[in-house]
Amino acid sequence: MHTLETTRQAPARRSWRRAAARWIVTFAGFPAGGFTAMLLVGHVDTVVTALAGGLITGTILGAVQAWGLGRSGPGAIRWVAATAIGLTIGLGIGATSVGFRTTLAALVVQGAVCGLAVGTAQALALRRSLGPISFAWPAALAAIWALGWAVTYAAGIAVNDQFTVFGSSGAVVVTALTVVLPVLLNAKQGEQS
């Protein structure tokens, strides 16, 4: 016998799974953004290339992630702008602070700075949807993006090419660890309807 509660649980389970599956696909935004930035501005070896590369990568990543968040997200324009601004500032500060080096330690620091900046900008966009919990996003993203660079470095990717963002191996890990975001947004949207 089905109760009203069991009837509601089945669509909710499908809904969070769909939100998670859609988000996982967004890992492609990292290499797509990094590759496009490499083609347009080259290696991240000056402040100018860091800023321009961050803007290009952040815009592409933000657009892909906005699609991944769907209607439960904060709005495509706000998300793309937050991600682009965050990565522009983060890469400018992060790459410069490590002297554009590509050692494991330097890339982890750069990743943490980029993640913190992107997370801060995205948290402002998420504030209406998630409330106070959105303020945990910058610290989480700082640690996760640092891990993304560590995974890319460990995978033997040619990090000496000074990319704007970690490679596909790091992107898969980062995307899997951030899947909590669309699931939370989806749950919040479900509570409101």
Order of helices and strands: HHHHHHHH
| Quaternary assembly | single chain
Largest sheet: none
Radius of gyration over C-alpha positions, nearest whole angstrom: 17 Å
Between the first and last Cα atoms, what is the distance in angstroms? Answer: 25 Å
Shape: globular
- Point out poorly predicted stretches: 4-8
Q: Quote the average pLDDT.
A: 92
What is the share of helical residues? over 70%
Structural class: mainly alpha
Number of helices: 8
- Work out the strand percent: under 5%
Q: What this model shows, in words?
A:
With 193 residues, this protein is mainly alpha-helical. It has one domain. The chain has helices spanning 4-24, 29-41, 47-69, 76-97, 104-130, 137-154, 168-177, 180-192. Helix 1 runs antiparallel to helix 3, helix 1 (4-24) runs antiparallel to helix 8 (180-192) and helix 3 runs antiparallel to helix 4 (76-97). The chain is globular and about 45 Å long. Mean pLDDT is 92; it is low at 4-8.
